[in-house]
Amino acid sequence: MGGDHGGGKLVKSLRGAAQKYVGVAFFLGFFLVLLTYFTLSEQFAIAAPNAIRRTSPASPTPTTPAVVEKTPTQLPVKEEAAPKPEHEQVQEKPPPVDETEGHTQTEESQTETEQDQTPIDDGGSSRVTVPPAEESAPAKKPACDIQGPWASDVCDVSVNVRIHGSERTVLIPPTIESGGSNPNPQSWSIVPYSRKHQAGMNVVTVRELATAAEAPACAVTSQVPALVLAMGGLTGNYWHDFSDIMIPLYLQAVRFDGEVQLVVTNIQPWYVGKYRHILARLSRYEVVNMDKDDQIRCFPGAVVGIRMHKEFSIDPEKEPTGHSMPEFTKFLRTVFALPRAAPVRVVDGSEKKPRMMIISRRHPRKLLNVAEVTALAERVGFEVVIGDPPFNVDVGDFAREVNGADVLVGVHGAGLTNSLFLPTGAVFIQVVPYGKMEHIGEVDFGVPAVDMGVKYMAYSCGVEESSLVDTLGRDHPAVKDPESIHRSGWNKVAEYYLGRQDVKLDLERFEPVLLKAMAMLRE
């Protein structure tokens, strides 16, 4: 009995445990069935083409090729005639706050862009890369070339512009090719003079417009582009007339072959009159006084500003490239119908004497012994003429006189600007005043003379050839210590050595220079 009772308990215990494990197994089995059902449902839902509206392109299906052959059936149908790039649409219409949806739209936009960049493979006959609308398009070249703190700035605009003169504005509407809009319009402030920091110069604003609708209506329409420049500044000094305006203007205007209209701020009527023959060759059209012009003038393009390569000269390596001083002096000979392109060649036994012109000055830096220098030059073998052009003389008349000379001599000053009219290969002698002025003479006339193709010599005056000894005394710093004057600044240099000094040449020292000039004409 005791053993049966113990065995009965054991059977009941085993039967209860079995029932418990069966229940657990049933539960686990049921859970596995459900898990399998949901797993299979999710897989079929992802694989089904209509299961969701937009498949994330970040995880393309294995059937999508790396290089897509672009065919009409694969291109998405676009109802709009000229749609904007996808990423612009996203910017204009931001995605919902839901970060997941926003991320999906961004990824899709990027994937479409990547597909647009995919090369087209048509069997090797062509391989074209289609760039995205903005990212791989070439960067738009700025209308204005800003050259830093010293060099002047120039804008070269090859599309239609509107110029409102009295407002000193040049407006650039967006082109049809750009869709009539400019999402990033820029603006520049330009001093259209070759010395951008010159005081008293007007500033011209060059401004791109965001839309074509902003462009004012045209009152006057020109068929040729405009060239905007300033004529104020240091004009009135003959050297600056050419160095600051005429040579830089030539560089910008010559490419138009007269088919350009000059629009001038800070206009100087005397300048327009004095240099009318040169200006008429650069432009066949009436000069527009910008500051008094209240009309909206429309041009097919514009250049705003003029740029100096270097003082009184041209550097063929600088923009606009390919020009030179011999080209410019040839241009001047054409303008004024100057007959001689080369000097006389001295030949032994010839009765024809080479002609020397001595530039006379009425102001400081006068040559005090002109008569004695003339007599010396005649003994050496020159025919001597004195050049003394008044301010208001016709440039062409005096240019013809200079062109008839084989040698030009003069003390440093604006009158030596007439070296422009010398025939190529003539001799040019600059008399450099006392006071360590050699560098200034070299920059202003020495380098330009070599650039224009004339044979250049500089004669530096000694202290005994300067009138400062008599007017200031030998103990004055300007006489005894020129370096101290240079250390004091340009104003003192100009005061003493340019503004208060005359020159009396030492004939014995100067004669070898004249003999050298004669020898140069024999070469």
Describe the structure.
The protein has 523 residues and is of the alpha/beta class. 36% of the residues lie in helices and 14% in strands. It contains 15 helices and 17 strands. A 6-stranded mixed β-sheet has the order 1-2-12-8-9-10, with helices on one face.
Note the topology.
Blueprint: H1 2-47, H2 86-92, H3 99-116, E1 144-145, E2 154-157, E3 161-164, E4 169-172, E5 187-190, E6 204-208, E7 220-221, E8 226-230, H4 238-253, E9 261-265, H5 269-274, H6 276-282, E10 288-289, E11 296-299, E12 302-304, H7 325-335, E13 355-359, H8 370-380, E14 383-387, H9 395-403, E15 407-411, E16 427-432, H10 438-452, E17 455-460, H11 468-472, H12 477-480, H13 482-487, H14 490-498, H15 507-522
Parallel strand pairs: 4-6, 7-11, 8-9, 8-12, 9-10, 13-14, 13-15, 15-16, 16-17
Antiparallel strand pairs: 1-2, 2-12, 3-4, 3-11, 5-6
Helix pairs in contact: 8-15
What is the structure about, briefly put?
By secondary structure, the protein is of the alpha/beta class. The protein has helices at 2-47, 86-92, 99-116, 238-253, 269-274, 276-282, 325-335, 370-380, 395-403, 438-452, 468-472, 477-480, 482-487, 490-498, 507-522; strands at 144-145, 154-157, 161-164, 169-172, 187-190, 204-208, 220-221, 226-230, 261-265, 288-289, 296-299, 302-304, 355-359, 383-387, 407-411, 427-432, 455-460. The termini are far apart.
